[in-house]
Amino acid sequence: MIDRRLALFVVAGLLVAFVLSGCGKGSFVSVNGEKISKDEFYKKLELTSIQGRPAGELVLDQMINEKLIDQMAKEKGVLPTEAQINEKIEYLKKDGSLTQVLQQRGLTIDEFKSEIYPRQAMINIVTKGVTVSDKEVNDRYNQIKDRLYTTAANVEIAAVICGKKEKIEKADAQIKQGVDFGTVAMRLSEDKLSNQTQGKLGRVWRGQPGVPTNLIEEAFKLKVGDVSKPFLVAPKGQTPQWVIIKATDRKPKVVRTFNEVKSQCREDVALMKGQTTTDIPKLLQKKRDSSTIIISPERYKQLAKIQKKK
């Protein structure tokens, strides 16, 4: 798998833009008519601790690293190409996760591409000059197919969860009377998540860690739109609870073909081989030591003189 250290130098593009974009005194948020300005927000965000460091300092440090990585890629003639970035986007489109990622994080496609860019620059630096055989690519696919390229058959469920049989029977009666399942969950479910999400709990699949086996099997018995009878589940180490579940969607098992992921497998192999001779953190530190980094705000000046790692 890809070295986790590579991810340490990539920051969420939206957060970067949010923290270090132009400030202003205009209304940013209004709470019952009382305004919170952008200046107030940025100041609070800069002082907020993330990973034991002020958010503003952490983000700026990562932005500096990204700029240095971009410069290294340019010096080595391996800047990311538009084709490489688009290939990553297309992969996520086929995977079905692109829209979800953009919606969850509030990103535009261009903002998301800007996040992919620095990581691709690092990959290009590490893999420059590395050769990979077709056999190595095929072997890589077979090694990780079941783990990374296979999506198990799954059922999306909603649930009403109660501690007492009498209460779950009350919920069951309301559902049978035609009351909306989500409404019943908000009224009667004692589980915090299902109560707040109109019962929605996400997807379950066979062998899923932490999910009672009988709940999963009950889910797979249902057709989309069907509602189960009340039944008892006993999560490990927890008090048994009564549950009613509704199947809201079903997806079959999907295995991505070799041709669909061949390019990614080739890149993975090249990256693993390249990391044996190319140490990005060391290269980055060397580049940083030889660079002129001028930081105007006094509170961030120490970032220009990051000490070498021991």
Q: What are the segments in which pLDDT stays under 50 over at least 5 consecutive residues? A: 1-25
Largest sheet: 4 strands, antiparallel
Q: How many strand units?
A: 10
Strand order of the largest sheet: 7-6-9-8
Return the average pLDDT rounded to an integer. 86
Helix/strand-derived class? alpha+beta
Number of helices: 13
* Net shape: extended
Gyration radius, rounded: 25 Å
SS strand fraction: 5-15%
- What helical percentage do the residues reach? 40-55%
SSE pattern: HEEHEEHHHHHEEHHHEHEEEHH
State the end-to-end CA separation. 26 Å
Give a quick set of tags describing it.
50% helix; 13 helices; 310 residues; two-stranded antiparallel ribbon; disordered N terminus; four-stranded antiparallel sheet; alpha+beta; 10 strands
How would you portray this structure in words?
- By secondary structure, the chain is of the alpha+beta class.
- Helices cover 50% and strands 15% of the residues.
- The chain is built from 13 helices and ten strands.
- Strands 7-6-9-8 form a four-stranded antiparallel beta sheet.
- A hairpin with a 2-residue loop joins strand 1 and strand 2 (34-37).
